[in-house]
Design brief:
four-stranded parallel sheet, 14 helices, alpha/beta, 6% strand
């Protein structure tokens, strides 16, 4: 069904819904985003539109802006926009504070709650290092490779990647050479030169880069899954699969965490500039 969802179709659906809904519309990338945001949104005055992807969401908001259609807001993952200094000038398009929504969940105390529930207190204490820093340090390896793939149009595939091929299950340290080979093989891009990719990553790397912008939330959750199987817990792999942990992080994310974000403040500012349209629920 996703291939049938186009920016024009999204825009047309919102136009048609205006006859029965006089409030605002919020365009989000996917269902998992809606599951988080709907807890903070006034669904009486604001209706969701799921775009099935960032490109669809961005293009749909541009179409509606050209038509001077009012009361529509889109929230998408920042991805590498801030690092590339490629930010939209549209006041109707907001970005997540961090690389993506999952990174916002991981940055909050939702992660601490999941670790308290899932982790072994003894193992976590014996680990002796900050868990978030460990996750970010490992996740950066994959994040930079994702960024290189985008910049160089390598079309590397990261979905359903087997992390055990390049990450040490006892230390969670990533072997960059093994990572590059695993992603190349997974993407069926065998003609690419490993050393060239490695050099491009090294050129791109910069200590001033915010790791919360470099790392992809899905990658971090996959590393967290491995950690809870060995380093910080003793769970069977199937009990802490990434989709299970993502759901638990969403459920653990509280209103107060969202209210402390820049995204929340940006939505408030949008409401002020776009009266009488309302997005946030009165309690938020």
């Amino acid at each position: 069904m996703r291939e049938f969802i186009t920016p024009d179709r999204i825009a047309n659906q919102i136009r048609m819904r205006r006859s029965s809904h006089k409030g605002s519309f919020l365009i989000v990338e996917g269902r998992s985003d809606k599951l988080v945001y709907e807890r903070f949104i006034d669904e009486t005055n604001c209706e969701f539109s799921i775009a099935s992807g960032k490109e669809n969401a961005v293009a749909a908001i541009r179409i509606l802006e050209k038509d001077n259609f009012t009361g529509v807001l889109a929230i998408v993952d920042a991805d590498f926009c801030r690092l590339d200094e490629n930010l939209s000038s549209s006041s109707n398009l907001l970005l997540t504070d961090d690389h993506d929504l999952e990174m916002m969940l991981l940055k909050s105390l939702a992660l601490d709650k999941v670790l308290s529930e899932r982790g072994s207190e003894d193992k976590i204490n014996n680990f002796g290092q900050d868990i978030r820093s460990t996750l970010l340090e490992s996740g950066k390896r994959i994040g930079y490779l994702r960024w290189v793939s985008l910049k160089e149009n390598l079309s590397l595939k990261f979905e359903e990647l087997n992390f055990s091929k390049f990450i040490d299950k006892f230390t969670l340290v990533i072997d960059t050479a093994k990572l590059i080979k695993a992603v190349k093989d997974h993407s069926q891009k065998l003609a690419l030169i490993d050393q060239d990719i490695q050099k491009t990553i090294e050129t791109l790397e910069n200590r001033t880069h915010d790791p919360w912008q470099v790392c992809c939330g899905h990658d971090i959750i996959c590393i967290l899954s491995m950690g809870l199987s060995k380093v910080w817990g003793s769970w069977k792999t199937n009990d802490v699969k990434s989709d299970i942990l993502e759901r638990e992080l969403r459920l653990a994310y509280e209103d107060s965490y969202f209210r402390s974000t820049q995204l929340y403040k940006s939505i408030q500012q949008w409401e002020v500039k776009n009266k009488p349209y309302q997005v946030l629920s009165p309690g938020n």
